[in-house]
Amino acid sequence: MLLMFYVGKIKEYKYTPGERFEVTPEMKNEFDRDGFILVRGLFTKEEIDKLYKGLQLGNIIKHAFNLPDGEKMNSKMVVWNHPGNDYTGRLGRCRRLVDTTEKLLGGEVYHYHTKVNMKEPHTGGAFQWHQDYGYWYKNALLFPDLLSVMVAIHRSDKGNGCLKVLRGSHKLGRIDHIRMGGQNGAEPERLAEAKKILEEIYVELDPGDGIFFHCNVLHSSAQNHSDRKRWVIIPCYNKMDNDPYADHHHARATKLHKVEDEDLIKCNEFDDLTGKWFMDPSIDKTIIASKVNENVDSSEEAPVNNA
């Protein structure tokens, strides 16, 4: 069962654990209009606690890298391209995410990649205003038929650098992006004009809350100057009929084997990372990154994407 209610100007949905998650025509219309839908309690406290426990073991986090924000702070990130059979892989394959994504995008999808973004207390860097398709366009994707699902692991609010989105900005189409630190950011003049007419929303999330957002939605987040962590997990999906026309550093169309929602909490596999294909940032020419505890010169000229 899915309940809908309002808080301020943001329409929210509430997921009821144990019941099938259904995308209503209203939800689909909202996604098409605004570029996102916000779901409270998408994952239970027990499910998120188990996820965090698995991440703390370090087998996944050891693949993390630093992403400079151009303002002297870094966020840590780890990215894997195939879901795998561990707990994080079950999360990325559960019907709660995949079925919903397929209804919102209008067709079969595959797992493009999942990332964990980690903003540590007092040091976690910002993410510049950008569209995900501003990066992914360079990965030989012809159509913007992708979305991401950001799920909070810790409380995410204005104090520790929560997500911000421009409502309806996916309708702008792909905007040119330029280098900003180790990242790509939306072209400033066009961004400034878009912000004059589109509503900027702070997406504050409790652990387990999730937001599904289109790959052309402009979004950003501020630095974390608080004494609290802000970790999120973000599975990303692409439509099967949007297979890239060339190989690159993310997955090409690969059949996604869904798991039932109730199977997630039953999974106790945290060590088997077989087949996940962790991304090496040195081969991703859309960013400039470094290994954790390794410095990077964020003023370095960006290499040309060769995906």
Description:
This is Phytanoyl-CoA dioxygenase family protein. InterPro entries: Phytyl_CoA_dOase-like. Its cofactor is Fe cation. This protein has helices at 25-34, 45-56, 87-93, 95-105, 132-136, 188-197, 261-266; strands at 2-7, 10-15, 36-40, 65-68, 74-80, 109-119, 127-130, 146-152, 163-166, 177-180, 183-186, 200-203, 210-214, 219-221, 230-239, 290-291. With 307 residues, it is an alpha+beta fold. Strand 1 and strand 2 (10-15) form a beta hairpin. The protein has a ten-stranded mixed sheet with strand order 1-2-3-13-8-15-6-5-4-16. It contains seven helices and 16 strands. 20% of the residues lie in helices and 28% in strands. The chain has a single domain (2-291), classed as q2cbj1_9rhob like domain (Jelly Rolls).
Helical segment tally?
7
Q: Report the span from N to C terminus.
A: 42 Å
Shape, principal axes of CA atoms: globular
- Give the helix/strand class: alpha+beta
- Quaternary state reads single chain
CATH T-level topology: Jelly Rolls
Residues in β-strands, percent: 25-35%
CA-based gyration radius: 18 Å
* Name of the CATH class: Mainly Beta
**If you average the pLDDT, what whole number results?**
89
Strand order of the largest sheet: 1-2-3-13-8-15-6-5-4-16
Range of helix content: 10-25%
Give me the count of strands: 16
Question: What is the H/E string?
Answer: EEHEHEEHHEEHEEEEHEEEEHE
The tally of structural domains comes to 1
Organism: Clavelina lepadiformis
Pfam families: PhyH
Cofactor: Fe cation
InterPro entries: Phytyl_CoA_dOase-like
